[in-house]
Amino acid sequence: MSLRSFHIFFIIVSLGLLSFMAAWSVQRVLEGAAGFSIALALFSVIGLAAGLPYLQWFLRQDQAEADA
After folding, report:
1. What pLDDT, on the 0 to 100 scale, is given for residue 9?
2. DSSP string spanning 20-51?
3. pTM recorded for the entire structure
4. What Cα–Cα distance (Å) separates residue 5 from each residue in 16, 52, 58?
5. Burial 20-49 (b: 16+ CB within 10 A, else e)
6. Which of 49, 41, 46, 51 is nearest to 21 (CA)?
7. Cα dihedral angle (52, 14, 37, 50), rounded to 10 degrees?
8. Angle, in degrees to the nearest 10, between helices 36-67 and 3-30
9. Tens of pLDDT along 29-57?
10. What are phi and psi of 8, to 5 degrees?
11. Dist. CA 28–CA 31, nearest whole Å
């Protein structure tokens, strides 16, 4: 596995874990939990909002280098 492939794999796994963490923490907030669950939901959603464009950028960069 090349470093580029590992990087893509690591980004996808991280986004998957962030998705599960966001869903779990949002569910806890809707059940009435506060404090840490709200912070966890906020940071996991922010992580997803930053991670998805980063994955798209990395894949485009990967494709541009392959075309060059």
Report:
1. 96
2. HHHHHHHHHHHTT--THHHHHHHHHHHHHHHH
3. 0.82
4. 17, 17, 11
5. ebbeebbebbeeeeeeebeebbeebbebee
6. 41
7. -20
8. 150
9. 999 888 899 999 999 999 999 999 999 99
10. -65, -45
11. 5
**Which amino acid is residue 58, in one-letter code?**
F
Tokens 């950028």: give the residue: 57
pLDDT per position as a tens digit, 1-40: 789 899 999 999 999 999 999 999 999 999 988 889 999 9
Q: Which tokens belong to 42?
A: 């906020």
Q: Which residue has the tokens 């980004």?
A: 11
